[in-house]
Amino acid sequence: MPRAQPEVDSSSSHPPHLLKRRQACHQCRRRKLKWSVGSIDLTELPESSSQLSDAQKPCSPCVKSHRFASYSNPGLLQTGPECTYDDLTSTPVVKPRTKYQILENKIRELESLVGQQSKEKESPSAGPSASTLDPSVASTETPRDNDPLDVPNILDPLLFPSLEQLSAMSELQTIDSPSDHPGQQLVISGWPTRLPKPDLFYHLVDVFFTCYPHAHYILHRPSFMVSLALPPKSPDFPHVSLLHAICAYAGVFSYLIKPPTAGDLEKIYRDFIFGDRRRPDSKEESFAEMHAKWAEETASQASVMGFNMLECVQTLVILSSFYASQGRWVELWSTLGDALRIAVPLGLNTRSGFRGDGTAHSSDSPETLLPNPANCVEEEARVNLFWVAYANERLSEAPGSWAMCLDDQDIHQLLPGGLSHFEAGHDIQGARQSLGLPDVLLQHPPELTDGFSLYIKATILISKTKSFNLRIRHKYPDATDVREVPEFYELEQLIASFRKSFPQQYNSPISQTARGLDIHVYATHLISQFAIILLHDKHANLYSPNCQSTRKLVAAARAILDLMYTVCSTSYDITRLPSICVQCWGRSASVLIRLYKLEISRGNQEEALAIDIEIQSIRFVLNQMGSRLPMALKYDKAIDFELEVKG
């Protein structure tokens, strides 16, 4: 119990000394009484100070209160007054100057400890390479050890930890810390826990916009970066599925992330579609694959609930490109179909303000799940997003005989305009082109034309070619030679005219932009040759010297080979090209293999050797790309398999 100071004469002229904090009893403190020491005539004090604690046990106010209470309850006379105090005897009173000295000593001890640890960190030590960053290290965790310190305790020198305790805590923190490099930083409140730390994530965003061919078209970068700077709990912060998809694609190209491996192709390549599913290898899940899984998971959850539908389509479009780069065909075809299927109820296949049947959109009975775009930037982003999803699906499924997900006759969306208008946020004035217009593939208005618009038109050409191949024999079941029907001739002329209609600045496959090589222009030149192969491949007779389809087929294959030589002669990183480029090179090699086997069967060794050099050139490029893109290695394995099979 705290003891009171010696009594002071009540008649003294000195004012009463107030007790220190917590020295009065609990009962007086609850009554909010003032207290002092000494015997004071209570009748001479103001009303507010009529009762003062004297720090005795029991104190005089508690004695008086107990006496008054006994008048109405005589039983209280058998007990003493309730008067309790804080037990402060274990905490000695420290003078202010002594506190300062203790704090100064602690500061000096901490400075010496920090200096000692700095010297230890400067010494060379083996650490994990940044290029082999583990996914668990890259992801953000918020440990409970980072709770804020108790402010009253840290200011009390008697409760401050000793130097030995601080040293032990520091060693433990160093061991448990997932990252001990200079980029370590505080975690943003609400930052998604499965995303990488903000510094690594912003690096991946830069890589994504640099390496993903369509990044600047499906995302308006200025608006996206503004939304990314918002608090993570803001409703305008990008949906986490989109951010995971960005991490997945950028994880293939970032020098800070170990790219996914192709696995054991000797076990899976002969089962080209389901090989990696029916014979899974034991390779560890990479950073990119993990984020792709999380992106698909969160996008599916949001789609079921009807949230962030547009961002979910963006996620699926990016994931389809990621799966294509990895040669994961099952996930690719599933994602491509989902993206186009979701695009229809969102109204992305038709122009803004109209329903699927062409009538005006009514706010009373909306048929689309998305509201009208808020501005021209959002409207153009939807246009570009649909056409990228369309192009991915058409180009990936072009060689097969499977039906396409969305018929061209049900597409009424405007064709994309120039990227410069979109990035500047300017509305495109004047008439826009659409798929249903005649000669849309041959007319290229300068204000609406860039590499991307030509790329989309080349994709439409592929779509027309595949539609012809799928339906022509059902339309003419008795035709002996499909090449004699009018539709075949019209399509062949359209392909040839499309290549000749390019604006002058896009006649060369190597076109320079502010960001380097215009990959869409290069891909357009490849796709125009790819369309010729798709049209004539089923009708070519390599054993007939007069077969026009054979001549055009081989010419297109060698034109694709020349385009490969052209881009490889530049300093451009060919792994950043769209996946259709690898597909075209692989198809060119397949045509040349058939020609190679024909020359071998005829005994033309010189011609066969020249063709073999062309095939090996394609395989060399595919193997070079395979260090980053497993898709290229799988195409190379497919070529190897074709060479083994007897023709």
From TrEMBL:
Gene Ontology MF terms in the entry: DNA binding; DNA-binding transcription factor activity, RNA polymerase II-specific; zinc ion binding
Gene Ontology BP terms: DNA-templated transcription
Chain segments annotated as transmembrane: none
Database matches in Pfam families: Fungal_trans (PF04082)
Cross-referenced SMART domains: Fungal_trans (SM00906)
Stretches of the chain forming a coiled coil according to its record: none
Keyword ATP-binding belongs to the record: no
Keywords tagged on the record: Metal-binding, Nucleus, Transcription, Transcription regulation
Annotated spans, Disordered: 1-25, 115-151
InterPro entries with a match to the protein in the record: TF_fung, XnlR_reg_dom, Zn2-C6_fun-type_DNA-bd_sf, Zn2Cys6_DnaBD
Polar residues: compositionally biased ranges: 126-141
Residue intervals of the Xylanolytic transcriptional activator regulatory domain: 332-422
Gene Ontology cellular-component terms listed: nucleus
Source domain of life: Eukaryota
Subcellular location, principal: nucleus
PANTHER family hit by this protein: ZN(2)-C6 FUNGAL-TYPE DOMAIN-CONTAINING PROTEIN, ZN(II)2CYS6 TRANSCRIPTION FACTOR (EUROFUNG)-RELATED
Name the record gives this protein: Fungal specific transcription factor domain protein
